[in-house]
Amino acid sequence: MTDMAAFIEGMPKAELHLHIEGTLEPELKFKLAERNGVDLPYDTVEEVVAAYDFDSLTTFLVGYYEGMGVLQEEQDFYDLAMAYFRKVHSQNLIYAEIFFDPQGHTSRGVEFSTVIEGLHRARNDAAAQLGIDAHLIMCFLRDMSAESAAETLAQAEPYKDWIIGIGLDSDERGNPPVKFKDVYARAAEQGYRLTMHCDVDQENTVDHIWQALDVIGVERVDHGVNSLEDPLLVEELKSRGIGLTVCPVSNVYVVQDSRAADIKRMLDLGILATVNSDDPAYFLAYMTENLKTAQAEGDLTQDEVVQLVRNAFTISWAPEDRKRAYIDRLEAYAANAGS
Ligand code: ADE
Ligand code: ZN
């Protein structure tokens, strides 16, 4: 019998639902605040963490956007992303597709180029220094206008080769997928891969997931846990091979339940469910901790934990030969660990 905690820690892992701005740890927040002359309403790391008493998507987003204020220069974005890569390297993460929110920065007067150049430089260094293969997914903020999303897509044009896909995040209430139909269509024409958030237990969530599939044509759904409420939707996800990026510890903060039992059900139903960390600095849990939570609370077997990570490589946007190599590595690890 393998020790489950050690097994999870050692697994080669992939992350598909990670907001780079949600990796801003309090220590770096203080450092950047000092470097940029920003006044923070806190004096200590403990005070910062004590303010993480979110109980909904809306309350979380207030803290998340407030935290971004310290990110101003290219070096800040580089330092943010490198800190994340170093952290997850210690957890054996080998592949990552990372969200960034340009409008969270351009709306504060930070240039698009400043954001993407810092993140891209870190991504290159993560590959060279840590062996992590990372890619950037540009998210539109759904509580901003469709016109603003279109402007952001235009700003990204010179950097198109640095961005693997498009996502949609922020406050879902009153902001259905269909609002972004045209800009997503344009992005698809330009060759971007497509995903979007359908956060847990949001108003009209099942309807939103259907829109994401049928109106937008997404290849993945971020969260999407409420798919389980509609058997036809479950069949559709399966027949199209559309995976879900579920975030158990984030769920504890946002909907007061990890929904690990739902993850277990997804696996039983043959849905391509994955486990991810969303905003790990705010939810105090990176990939390893999220997998441990899903395993413990969903009572998952070692094979089921392997399946979750295999699913992540399968639904990633890595080329097929790389996916195969990652999955072979995962399976060799599991075979070597025994059960
Ligand atoms: N922005 C950062 N994390 C998010 C989440 N989980 N849902 C929506 N928007 C987000
Ligand atoms: Zn998210």
What would you say this structure looks like, in words?
There is one protein chain. This protein has 339 residues and is of the alpha/beta class. It has a single domain, classed as TIM Barrel, CATH 3.20.20. The protein is built from 17 helices and nine strands. It has a five-stranded parallel beta sheet. It has a four-stranded parallel beta sheet with strand order 6-7-8-9. β7, α11 and β8 form a beta-alpha-beta unit. α5 runs parallel beside α7 and α13 packs across α15. It is globular, with a radius of gyration of 19 Å. The protein starts with a helix and ends with a helix. The model has no long low-confidence stretch (mean pLDDT 97). Bound molecules: adenine (ADE) and zinc ion. Zinc ion binds next to loops.
How do the strands of the widest beta sheet line up side by side?
1-2-3-4-5
The average pLDDT value, as a whole number, equals: 97
Bound molecules: adenine, zinc ion
Ranges with pLDDT <50 over ≥5 residues?
A: none
Strand content: 5-15%
Structural domain count: 1
Rg over C-alpha atoms, rounded to the nearest angstrom: 19 Å
Would you tell me which CATH topology applies?
A: TIM Barrel
CATH architecture: Alpha-Beta Barrel
Distance between the termini: 5 Å
What is the string of SSEs from the N terminus onward?
HEHHHHEHHEHEHEEHEHEHHEHHHH
